[in-house]
UniProtKB/TrEMBL annotation:
One of its GO terms (molecular function) is hydrolase activity. GO terms for cellular component: cytoplasm; nucleus. InterPro entries: DEAD-box_helicase_OB_fold, DEAD/DEAH_box_helicase_dom, DNA/RNA_helicase_DEAH_CS, HA2_WH, Helicase-assoc_dom, Helicase_ATP-bd, Helicase_C-like, P-loop_NTPase. Residues 163-331 form the Helicase ATP-binding domain. It comes from Ignelater luminosus. Coiled coil: none annotated. SMART domains: DEXDc, HA2, HELICc. Its EC number is 3.6.4.13. This is RNA helicase. Residues 414-584 form the Helicase C-terminal domain. It catalyses: ATP + H2O = ADP + phosphate + H(+). Residues 1-10 have a biased composition (Basic residues).
Amino acid sequence: MSGRFKRRKRDFGGRGTKSESSNEDIVNLDRHPPHLRGREIGWFYARRNKERRKLGLYNKISKPLGTVLLSENKKEQIQQLLKSTSTTLERDDTAFAFQMKFFQMITGDIEQKLDSAVAVTRSEKIDKSLFDEFDNRKSNNYYKTMLLKRQKLPSFSKKEEILKLIDENQVVVVSGETGCGKTTQVAQFILDDFVENRKGSLCHIICTQPRRISAISVAERVADERAEPLRMGVGYHIRLEKELPRDKGSIVFCTTGVVLKQMEKDPCLSNVSHIILDEIHERDIMSDFLITLLKQVIKKRKDLKVILMSATLNSEKFSAYYDNCPHINIPGFTYPVQEFYLEDVLQRTGFKFDDFSKARGNRSFQARMDNVYRNFIEPHVRKLEANRTYSRDVCIQLRNPKAEELNIDLILALIIDICEKEKDPGAILVFLTGFSHISNLNQLMEKSGKFPASKYRIIPLHSLMPTVNQRQVFDKPPKGVRKIIIATNIAETSITIDDVVFVIDCGKIKMTNFDVENNCQTLKPEWVSLANASQRKGRAGRVQPGICFHLFSRARNMTLEQYQKPEILRTRLENTILTIKILQLGKIETFLESLMDSPEPDAVKVSVNLLKRLNALDDTETLTPLGYHLAKLPVGPQVGKMILLGAVFSCLDPVLSVAVSLDFKDAFVMPLGKEREVDFKKRELSDDNGSDHLLLHMALNRFENEDYNGRKQFCWNYFLSCHTLTQLQDMKKQFMEYLYNMDFVNSKDPGNHKFNVNSKNLSLVKAVICAGLYPNVAVIKGKKFRNIVHTIEGEKAEMHPKSVLSKQVSFNTPLLVYYLRLRSTSNFIHDATLVHPLPLIFFGDNYTYNVDDSGTTISIGNDRLKFKCSRSTNLLIKELRDRLNWFLEYKISNPGVVDWNGEGPDIAILRFFSFHFLDHLSLK
DNA sequence: GAGCACTGC
């Protein structure tokens, strides 16, 4: 048995994969091939340089970044330490015991677990009490009035048909537009039917919702309709908040993620009789995942009923996916909304675009695109000309390529026009793409002088603006005052404003995508889908007939996609892959191929490779002990690793603050026009510590240490959202629960001193952040920081202006780690922490060294980061690094609270590492 | 010099 768990040469960071290039021949050529002409030559060099950068051949990363120096005194200390700890780190027996336990946890598959599924059990006593309760309620006056209202909903007329279909089939698709009442009624139909037939104890319904707010509000609504408080027959369960109803004879509204997490423990969904998946047409990852997973579950649980609910458009797709299961459509009810398009708006306002020939960026490219547009629009304009429904001017404007760009002046003209001509005093809701457009329009409206406060209430609405939580969005304004809301697509689903009568839809939406080739996320405006356009339109008809203006032509409307791309095709897949693994769904590719829409194999490969590099998956794509823990934590793998190391290094509180802020969202708000002030306050709070991540810690830490009034004041002073900070605080507590269940901590208070021995040691906290975020490393390019950095993948990137580092001018290290790189208007790194070389040398993967005439060169991460040092320094660092990584791997495989006051030799290494080393290493 | 929107026992 000895040697089975021998100290391995592997890094804690895991093995890496060699970078590959399909263009090696190009990279190696010095000059372009002679047959190329003109622009082709330029493209050749651009492409070559990009490839070279990716291979690390063409930037300063290829050279050593400096020399690592250790003082003689320090060397002496390390030698002592190595001597004193050399014999004690092999603990084969305990490690092996854990391995066996772990092996049992990760092998096996979901089929086995499903085999043990049992049907929901019946209790006649409960059946009777539920029946009596229901019978009593029928004479309750409030219930009766609510019932009258419910009976007016279109879904009520289909009640018997829906029940019959569900009774006769295991899977049913119910489709219907907003207003048909399917979300609130279908679950009640089922429950009431069971109760009335004296089998209420057999009924426990889960209904999933894609958003937290809808889960709560639907639950409250349904409980109200049943004239009972929450937690009797109706409840909800979302992350961090739950009001659960009784076990039997009840309905729970959950977010999809909650159900998926529950299925990690109980894939059979024991005790559940019906699962309703609502809003599945939105195609978010979690419901796509659940739809596929349920396909396996229902094979073994024949008594479990699945009801898929979607919008009407495309609902056949879901039915087809479930072997053409029966499908019922409920007609919707909303007030009629008249739709107008760009040509109508131009006619109405007489608006004229700028001359399109004015230079806009890359001229030749633009000229080509302009031509494409003119060819596209010409047939449509010809038709309009023939019909003579629109003026000559309108046709001229439609031919202008600028007609396809988002034009704030046009929107302003339209708003003014509505305000002048439309007698109805209803609110106007404008859909824009983002912060800058909202800000611009707001300014233009102010400057125009046509919107005095006495007659208009203008409300910008964006997730980063404090207005989101304010009442004024929903309040009906006084008589004679018109409300104008300028919003992002937050007003499409998340925020519902009832008194809207006019909608202006700019036709664009910002979408994230995952660019596999460049291994980065993108955020770019795109045309809306028909589903978006119709959702936006629907916002005008909630209380009375309305009008919707789409700012694109009818010709463009014909080309729009029906739906947005499913989320699973637009995002990184690390979390999805970990979920597949923890649910024991077998081979990653096989499961992903069985989804309704499968991600590209390359996208899967990129994510699998990162997970291997993080040492979460081994070469056979099996979870490692680290991977097992990461899959249990509801965060991305890098943030999860950071949390685990925060526990081991006893700096848990600050690391948790950073982790939850990165994974959820930071708490900073951005009132319109206060951008500079916010930046200033952020820098003040960050105290020049060279880290956006520590800033997140500072914000939460200061908040937690204040009393109620102090918190309010603090949030006000530093542009922070009290609500978000409280949520973050709750999330920290939730992670303590997880860590407690995993045995990494033995109490649930994140501030407990036992887990925060080193929390004031910010160098150590930074090192833990670095260990988590690796391999997201970048090198600052010049001596003077001009915001330009190179990632170690060889991508050129720019520091995002919101980062505190974007204003910093001098640096004591050329290295930084980051969480998010997002390509929007530029390739931006959104957040960063400056790090010294040593944490990278210790936590990076693929440590190698090379000795030649010029001395010793250490390199990290497949030769992407190089440092010079003396021979003896290299040997010491290497040995210390091996010990540390071995110990960390041991700790992860054998979770337990690290006793920092203990005298064990392993503690000696951790203590040495955290107290004596991190900032004392100089780089020349 | 810039920030679509969601979500996790």
